[in-house]
Structure formats: structure tokens, C-alpha cells
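#lab-general

N.A. 3:47 PM
ok so I finally got the sequence cleaned up, no stray characters, all 407 residues accounted for. can someone with queue access submit it? mine expired

B.Y. 3:52 PM
send it over

N.A. 3:53 PM
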Amino acid sequence: MEENKETLCPICKSAQAFRLLNLDCGNLDPSTLYSLVKINACEKCGHIYNDLSSEDITGLMKYYNEEYGPVNMSSTDKVGDRPGSTNSFTCKRHALLYDLVAPYIHKDSRALDVGCAMGGFLDYLHQKGLTKLYGVDIIEDYVSYAKKKGIYTVKLGSAESIPFDENSLDLVVVDQVVEHLVDPIQVFKEAKRVLAEDGLLCIGVPDASRYDKLYFFDFFWFLMREHIQHFDLEHLKLLAGLEGFEFVTHCEAETPMMSEKMILPNLNVVFRKTNKKGQLHTTENCFKLKKEMGQYIANDLGKLNRKKALIKEFINSKKPLYAWGIGREFLYLYASAGLKNCNLIGLIDTNSLKQSTFSVEGKSIHDKIILKEAPANSALLITAIAHTSPIKKVLFEMGYQGQIVEI
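B.Y. 4:20 PM
back already:
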């Protein structure tokens, strides 16, 4: 670990931090998303965050509209918990949120979903009988889609700049958003402004204290580079306290994301608006996360080394290699595990937008149809980890004769 003094902690604004990890996550061409993940631990309050340059931040903001939103909307996946989906995975997560706030709201409560995407949670609240529903999102395509439903008011905006009047809402829900924000204190400032007296703020984030307990893939929660803050309950309480919010209740749960094996460690917390102005109050519990994050990183560095050993065999053999799934896992393996040095003869992804718009260091992305001409001595590396079983089924149906490798 090395001391880092360049970036201020998003919670306490201290410049004193330790660098826990530098990780090259790779990139698509011509993505504006930063490739090098730099994880800091604040010495003053224990918060864990990504160290971003101004260029990183500018690129990240462009990424949401130019890549993140369009790729999600063009996905062929119907199973995963994606923005706008209404399947069982998404409904399970929505039910957790609703059950947590239900004792404190009624059918006439004025509820805002910040980061509403295509309106999935607003649909859920509408089904539960709420009629005064509002949404905000930064992605124009999402807002346009949600508006067409005509059952609630949706505006272009952000958690840091909510386009609603002061004291106009009873409930503000910010689910799976705060971890994306450069300055998360603004969520609490804006929520306090738009909430009526004693109004409620419900925050949902991935629980960083459980990153290491729910393994899916190496450094998965860092490969999601749009997640730039890594919260546990203690650090959400620190942020809320700075704006005078009082803690009401919380729940910890686990819900599937893209598959039953890919689990989101949900942390949902309800705070109540007060007229107080708080101060930073750290306790010993605030520094537990740094230790837990260190263990997570150490464990996954070991897993990365094992993947390097496997990939080295393909490098040495020069065996013709395909990769199926050109997303986070592939890009990380390509950049950090040596996959770029293999004899890669085909990149495969069923997302049509990736095929038409993106590449990897000039290598085109193709539909699975290219496997019809695959050499018998080839191998196929499944890098869409959440979809391993359906991919293997397709390969069997296609009669693929090469070696199938799960990593």
C-alpha cells in the first residue's frame, strides 16, 4: 500500500489516503470509460473510493449516455436484473425496497425515484397503489422511454441536482445510485431540500463489507468502474449525519443480478429528514471496512494469478482461441491476465450494438455465427460468466468441436 495525497475523500475531504490497489480493467474502442482503477482508503474516516482524475470523471459522464444506457437497452438478456427489467430478479430487489419503506408511507405519499432508469421501481410502486409518483435520470433514452408510459412524471436530472421544488416530496428513493457519484454528499443535500418536514430518504447500495463473501468473479465490484464509492452502513450514516438526517432502519439482503450465481449484496437504509446540521463523528467501526477491503483484494489477487497461469498455457501453445462475452470480465482478462497475448481469432457477443459500434484494440466483435467456420483445434473461452450454462447449450446445439474453457 502506498500513501496517496492527491484526491480528497468524498466524505470527510481529507487528503490523507492509502492506495489499496491499481488494476487495469481494459476497455472497448472507442469507450470514454477510464481503464485504470485506483482504490483509496481514507485515513481519517475509513471510506473506500476510486481515485479519479478530472479526465476520468468527464469520460465517465459521457459513458453513461454513449455506452452504458445504449448497451443495456440493446441487450438480448431477459433474465438479469437490468435497468427497466420487470423479471423475478428485479422484482425481488424492488420488493425489499418497498417492504422497508411501506410502514412509513401511504397511497397519497409523494414519492420520487432518483435514477429511475426506465421506470421499473415506479411501476412497482404504482402497482402497490401509489399515484403521486415521480422519476429522475441522467440518461436521455431512459427518460424518454419512461415518459411514454404516461403513469408518472419523469424528468432529466440527477441526484446532485433534483429538478423539484423545496419541501415538495414525502419520500426520495435513491437505489443503486450513490455508489456512482463523485460527490455523494450532494444526494443528502438535495434530498433535504426537496423533502417535506420529517420526509424519508431511502438509500440502496451494494454492501462493500460483503464484497469478499459473495464471490462471482475476480474484483467484480471494481470491474464495475461506474461504481466509484464503496459503502458500508457506517459510512452511509456518516454522510447522512453531515446533513442532519437521522437513521430510521435498514436491511441487508442478497438478490440475483444476471444469474442465480451472481449475487448483489444489498444494503438498504432509511433516514429521516431533521432540521439539525450534523458533524463528522467517526468510530472504530468506520475502519473495519479498510481491513475487509484489504482481505478482498488479497484473495482476488491470488485468483488473478491462477488465471494468469491458465492463460499462459494458451499463450505458449498459440492455440486458436475464441472468447464469448466481450464485457467486464473479458476486458479485465485481456488487460491484466495476459489474454491479449493469446492467439485470439474471434471475439463473440450477442449484443448487436457491441458488434456494430465497438472493438477491442481494433479486433471486431462478431455474432456467434462465426463459429460455424471454427477450426477443429480451436478453443473457446467463456467470458460471459453469468451466462455460462446457456452458452454451453448453444455451443452443443451448434456442434462446436473445439475445446470449451470455463475460467
